[in-house]
Amino acid sequence: MAAAVFTALLIASGFALLVFQLNFFLLVFAGVFFSVLLNAFANWINRKTKLRYSFSLIVVVLLIAVFFTALFMLLGPSISKQLNEMVETLPKSLQSLQEKIKQTEIGRTIFDEVPEKPQDLIQDKSRCVF
To answer: Which site among 10, 23, 107, 113 is 20 to 30 Å from 64 CA-CA?
Structure first.
């Protein structure tokens, strides 16, 4: 009887852990997936070049680092330009959206009821997650 209760509690706690810590398990899965990917590429280089496994793994890590560095250097200026444009146009767009919402009766009611600082809606700021 005690073993059945222990098993049931173990299963329930495992399920609760899975539900409440999904991000942790996704991170663990990503780590396992990445290590399998590194292992596969290192084994392939090992077979083709007859390098030792450790050197093959170093080559794979360096190739991945070079790839992402080149990608960042090629796409970085374009992304930076787009972010600067977004920073300039986003406040204007939000202001325009706010004015369009205020043109409706419901929108005016909402903007009359909501304070200027949404943080004021939180009564107990010590319980705030962020």
So the answer is: 23
Q: Are 102 and 111 in contact (CB under 8 A)?
A: yes
pTM of the model: 0.55
Tell me how far apart the alpha carbons of residues 121 and 115 are, in angstroms, rounded to a whole number: 8
Query: Measuring CA to CA, which residue among 60, 52, 67 is closest to residue 36?
Result: 60
| Cα 23 to Cα 119: distance, rounded to the nearest angstrom | 27
The C-alpha atoms of residue 30 and residue 36 are separated, in whole angstroms, by 10
- Residue 60's CB: how many other CB atoms inside 10 A? 20
Give the angle 22-28-29 at the CA atoms, nearest 5°. 90
Residue 16 pLDDT more than 90? no
Q: What residue type is assigned to position 37 of the chain?
A: L
